[in-house]
Amino acid sequence: MLVQPLQMLSHSFYVAASRLKDELLLVVTNKNPKKAISIYKARWEIETLFACLKTRGFCLEDTHLTYPDRIEKLIFALSIAFCWGYKLGNVAANAVPISIKKHGRKAKSLFRYGLDKIREILLETPRCFNLFLWLLKLFDPLLSSSIPKRIFL
């Protein structure tokens, strides 16, 4: 991390760095460089959420909504669905790991894996009623104890 600011075209900036698994993350900032990496991490998580809401799952932009109250309600519902998908994806990946592609990255994100499982369960609800109840329990652990504790996906 550069503690002394660099100058370029009459602007001061700092460079913060962090070693990742296979690469180096560099963040250029005009603010406190000690907080730059953690702020960037939080922002990246938000960007990932928006990507899932837009193109990687829910296609939010395809709704063409313009009324703020309707957009707010839709984002509320999609945020719950996102959390549900992510949580189920995490559980499902522990039961059946996500395949790894040739380039070394997972074929699907935890969110996409979970969203695909939710879709699969909802489309086959009559056949998978216990699985659907278990899925609800993931979202609210206070649901009835009669729901099976574990179901293999």
The amount of beta strand, in percent, is 5-15%
Radius of gyration computed on alpha carbons: 21 Å
Taking pLDDT < 50 over at least 5 consecutive residues as the criterion, the unreliable ranges are none
Fraction of residues in H or I helices: 40-55%
What is the overall silhouette? extended
Total count of strands:
3
Averaged pLDDT, please?
80
Order of helices and strands: EEEHHHH
Major sheet: 3 strands, antiparallel
Strand order of the largest sheet: 1-2-3
Task: Give the count of structural domains.
Answer: 2
Query: First CA to last CA: what distance?
Result: 45 Å
Helical run tally: 4
Structural class: mainly alpha
Protein architecture, described:
By secondary structure, the chain is mainly α. It folds into 2 domains: 6-47, no CATH class; 60-139, no CATH class. It is built from 4 helices and 3 strands. It has helices spanning 33-54, 68-95, 110-123, 129-139; strands spanning 6-8, 11-19, 24-29. Strands 1-2-3 form a 3-stranded antiparallel beta sheet. Strand 1 (6-8) and strand 2 form a beta hairpin. The mean pLDDT is 80.
Notable features of this structure?
153 residues; mainly alpha
Which secondary structure elements does this structure contain, and how are they paired or packed?
Elements: E1 6-8, E2 11-19, E3 24-29, H1 33-54, H2 68-95, H3 110-123, H4 129-139
Antiparallel strand pairs: 1-2, 2-3
Helix pairs in contact: 2-3
Q: Summarize this, please?
A:
The protein is mainly α and 153 residues long. Helices cover 49% and strands 12% of the residues. It has a 3-stranded antiparallel β-sheet.
